[in-house]
């Protein structure tokens, strides 16, 4: 029955006489009693604890080796050399020796890491030109700046991490064996194929495409010569450049450098135990921001790398829920079990 039209007064604004507007629809209201609430709290505490233990065991199953090479081995000489800006163009190589006591089984990922480098600074993150790195023609590339185009421009690209590594395995018997690393395919698919593209060459070489441009100030090579061993890995689609251009959220971070190529002995099952050396082309200075440099060798699981945050978060949540459940149980046992009122 609807409201009567043409009438004035309070009845004119009365809602329709329907089950929905008059709130006569069937409804269910849970009765929160100790017999329903307390088992729910204990169940949630148990679920969080099981998830936390499961994730913790998963994380601990990963193997990880961190090696700070800032001043390790013979790198102390290069560290002092990089303090002077006038030596920036001079090459410096060093060697760090380490050992793996327990073999890293399965796929092994090689990362480089930086500490106290704030890629998340807003002015730093804004200092880039993503549109420049998806240009379609070389003429458009040259018109993006008035004088001396710098492909790629901005502080992010200019500060690219340019140390390089060569890993060597020294077995108990036999000669030293270089550890093969896959240096391509380490980027996101969308970054490599959508976000970053080289200009169309029209049967020209990449050097000819970038003719008339200058390399960024602190780069030792132009953008078209980043990978002398693989011509298809140069320009804006260079894997190392793409990995660096994805800024880290925290000042201490690591970025993927390569993946173990498990095609030949003795690396078919991973990295065997033994002695290793890393030959480093030491180029990236860290003194100006009081940073440190490291390499990380690690295996991965379905959960990712060795990150304890989520397992610990589940375990802490489980303990808090269990504590609340115990307090509620004590309060119910003391005040509510026999139907007594709390104020009594």
TrEMBL record:
Spans traversing the lipid bilayer: 37-57, 312-333
Chief localisation class: membrane
Family annotation (Pfam families): CDC50 (PF03381)
Family matches, as InterPro entries: CDC50/LEM3_fam
A GO CC term attached to the entry: Golgi apparatus
Subcellular location: Membrane
GO terms classed as biological process: phospholipid translocation
Keywords: Membrane, Transmembrane, Transmembrane helix
Family that this chain belongs to: Belongs to the CDC50/LEM3 family.
Protein name (Swiss-Prot/TrEMBL): Cell cycle control protein
Source lineage: Eukaryota, Metazoa, Chordata, Craniata, Vertebrata
């Amino acid at each position: 029955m609807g409201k009567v039209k043409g009438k004035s007064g309070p009845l004119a604004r009365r809602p329709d006489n329907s089950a929905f507007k008059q709130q006569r629809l069937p409804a269910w209201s849970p009765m929160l009693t100790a017999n329903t609430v307390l088992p729910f709290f204990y169940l949630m505490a148990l679920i969080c604890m099981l998830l936390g233990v499961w994730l913790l065991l998963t994380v601990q199953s990963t193997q990880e080796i961190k090696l700070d090479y800032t001043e390790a081995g013979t790198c102390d000489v290069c560290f002092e050399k990089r303090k002077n800006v006038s030596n920036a163009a001079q090459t410096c190589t060093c060697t760090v020796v380490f050992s793996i006591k327990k073999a890293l089984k399965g796929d092994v990922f090689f990362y480089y890491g930086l500490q106290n480098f704030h890629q998340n600074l807003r002015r730093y993150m804004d200092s880039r030109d993503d549109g420049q790195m998806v240009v379609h023609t070389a003429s458009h590339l040259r018109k993006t700046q008035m004088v001396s185009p710098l492909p790629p421009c901005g502080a992010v690209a200019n500060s690219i991490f340019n140390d390089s590594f060569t890993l060597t395995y020294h077995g108990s018997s036999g000669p030293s064996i270089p550890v093969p690393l896959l240096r391509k395919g380490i980027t996101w698919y969308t970054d490599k194929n959508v976000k970053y593209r080289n200009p169309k060459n029209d049967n020209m070489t990449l050097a000819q495409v970038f003719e008339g441009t200058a390399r960024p100030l602190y780069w030792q090579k132009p953008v078209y010569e980043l990978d002398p061993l693989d011509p298809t890995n140069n320009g804006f689609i260079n894997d190392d450049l793409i990995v660096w251009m994805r800024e880290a959220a925290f000042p201490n971070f690591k970025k993927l450098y390569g993946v173990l190529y498990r095609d030949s002995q003795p690396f078919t099952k991973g990295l065997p135990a033994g002695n290793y050396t890393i030959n480093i082309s030491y180029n990236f200075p860290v003194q100006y921001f009081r940073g440190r440099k490291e390499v990380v060798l690690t295996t991965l699981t379905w959960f990712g790398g060795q990150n304890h945050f989520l397992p610990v978060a589940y375990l802490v949540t489980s303990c808090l829920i269990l504590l609340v459940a115990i307090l509620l149980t004590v309060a119910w046992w003391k005040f509510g079990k026999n139907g007594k009122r709390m104020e009594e």
